Amino acid sequence: MTAKLVEFKREGWRDAAKTLRKIADDLDAGVHPECTVGALTIMGPKGEVTVFGLGPKCDDLQCLGAMRLGEQKLIDVLLEQPET
Description:
Layout: H1 16-28, E1 38-43, E2 49-54, H2 60-79
Antiparallel strand pairs: 1-2
């Protein structure tokens, strides 16, 4: 299994709805592989959490797995040390 990390730059990615539309447009254009399982977590200003599962093979366990893979990928990127 492979995972592709999409860089979310601070500038230009702050508008959540615009960012989600860009991701959807990129999926439609074939920039990213077809989504079979996806998981999206949104946190509101008061800490309220909403989770969405998506894709034709989406179920509770698949979404949880996708979330965990995404979490690990982010941790790996954060822990990478620049080569000197």
